[in-house]
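Tip: read the tokens left to right.
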């Protein structure tokens, strides 16, 4: 599939696999690493992100999301670094923000205040992340299962 048709900025590699195919590959290979410490998995994710390949970035974000039961508040720094350093497209921004970052904010509601500060950033992906990363929490709140940052304070 030609991903360039969905992006304004020039992509280095416009040919990407369909998301379903990439996630299937991701799931298969995650089985091999799932028992590693989360920090080791995140290091592998960083290496995949550094490649600049969209498919490998998708795998990295998927692996990070598969570690969600092991998230700690300090993981925010990792996801924020990934956002600032590696996110260069709508799809990669949305995937990072709705899945790993969004679920981290869901688990640690006070992080929402840090996310909201990105709305004033000059970086378009940080501005987008300021809204998109709150989607999981807002969905949960609609279901009555989430305490907002104001309620948690």
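Filled-in amino acids:
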């Amino acid at each position: 599939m030609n991903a360039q048709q969905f992006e304004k900025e020039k992509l280095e590699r416009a040919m990407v696999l369909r998301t379903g195919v990439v996630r299937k590959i991701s799931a298969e290979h995650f089985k091999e690493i799932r028992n590693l410490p989360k920090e080791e998995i995140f290091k592998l994710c960083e290496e995949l992100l550094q490649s600049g390949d969209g498919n490998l970035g998708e795998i990295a974000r998927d692996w990070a999301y598969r570690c969600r039961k092991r998230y700690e508040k300090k993981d925010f720094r990792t996801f924020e670094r990934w956002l600032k350093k590696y996110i260069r497209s709508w799809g990669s921004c949305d995937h990072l923000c709705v899945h790993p970052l969004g679920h981290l904010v869901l688990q640690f509601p006070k992080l929402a205040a840090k996310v909201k500060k990105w709305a004033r950033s000059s970086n378009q992906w940080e501005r987008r992340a300021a809204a998109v990363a709150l989607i999981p929490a807002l969905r949960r709140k609609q279901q009555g299962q989430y305490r907002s940052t104001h309620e948690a304070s």
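Residues 90-107 form the longest helix (18 residues). The radius of gyration is 15 Å.
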